Amino acid sequence: MEVYEKFNIIPNHKSLYVQAFTHTSYANENGLKSYERLEYLGDAVLELVMSEYLFKNTEYEEGKMTKLRSHYVCESALYEYSTRLNLNDYILLGHGEEQSGGRSRKAIVADIFEAFIGAMFLDQGLDFVKDFIYKNIIPLIERKEVDFFSDYKSILQELVQTDRRSLEYTIINEDGPAHDKTFTVEVKIDNIVYGTGTAHSKKQAEQEAAKDALKKAQNGN
Questions:
Q1: Which of 84, 112, 192, 196 is the most exposed place for a label (fewest CB within 10 A)?
Q2: pLDDT (tens digit, 9 = 90+) per residue, 143-200?
Q3: How far, in Å, CA of 11 to CA of 56, rounded?
Q4: Where are the alpha helices (DSSP H) in the chain?
Q5: What is the pTM of this model?
Q6: Which of 218, 219, 203, 209 minimizes the C-alpha distance to 189?
Q7: Is 106 a residue whose pLDDT tops 70?
Q8: More confident residue, 7 or 203
């Protein structure tokens, strides 16, 4: 795989990396293991490395570190990391998923980043993973090149509280199988729909809905 040379990996177990890029649809069609278990592991490893980074490089209190870490490992952040590293080029998708645009689907692209981290951790160890993250991800955070760290829900909440208006998030649709659901949420202010958002998790869908509402407010809609 080209990914080995790209990130200076001398693999001990190539099968781990193949699994890391194998979507459930491809796994089912070809009798292979999907990336889901590696995604679970990668999530924990990424949280550990980000926690250590914040602890060693800031003087923030616990609450602020926790909030920042949640931004750095949210679905939007993972999607951004993954696309900037072109990891979606390596995804193995079933025919139907490929045809329906799965290679650019936010949830899938975000998931493979965590799965890749999990595979790298098992194959190369924690120090290698830390080096990878410090070289490829931390610079994006420190240079503030992207805006996916914004907590749109908090911003919207502050605006609404100023005018003492009501704010409500409602799930209006759930789609997909249990292991790969997408949620669509709408946000209402004083019972009027101001924005909608769709994501892999309910929390992220709420953030997307809040972002949509803020964007419309900014444009005067």
A1: 192
A2: 876 655 567 888 788 788 777 788 999 999 999 888 778 999 999 999 999 999 998 8
A3: 30
A4: 2-6, 14-20, 24-30, 36-57, 62-72, 75-84, 95-99, 106-124, 126-136, 138-142, 152-162, 202-218
A5: 0.71
A6: 209
A7: yes
A8: 7
b/e map 155-187, b = 16+ CB within 10 Å: ebeeebeeeeeebebeeeeeeeeeebebbbbbb
pLDDT of residue 218: 65
Residues with catalytic annotation? 43, 114
Q: Is 185 helix (H, G, I), strand (E, B) or coil?
A: strand
What is the token pair recorded at 157?
């909440």
Length, in residues, of the chain: 221
**Hey, how many other C-beta atoms are within 10 angstroms of the C-beta on 202?**
14
The tokens 């160890």 sit on which residue? 125
Q: How far apart are CA 148 and CA 145, in angstroms?
A: 9
Nearest CA-CA partner of 179 in 75, 15, 31, 39: 39
Is residue 118 within 8 A of residue 40, CB to CB? The reply is yes
φ, ψ of residue 194 in degrees (nearest 5): -110, -20
What gap in Å lies between CA 111 and CA 174, rounded to an integer? 19
pLDDT at 150: 61
Please, is 104 exposed, middle or buried when counting C-beta atoms within 10 Å of its C-beta (0-12, 13-18, 19+)? exposed
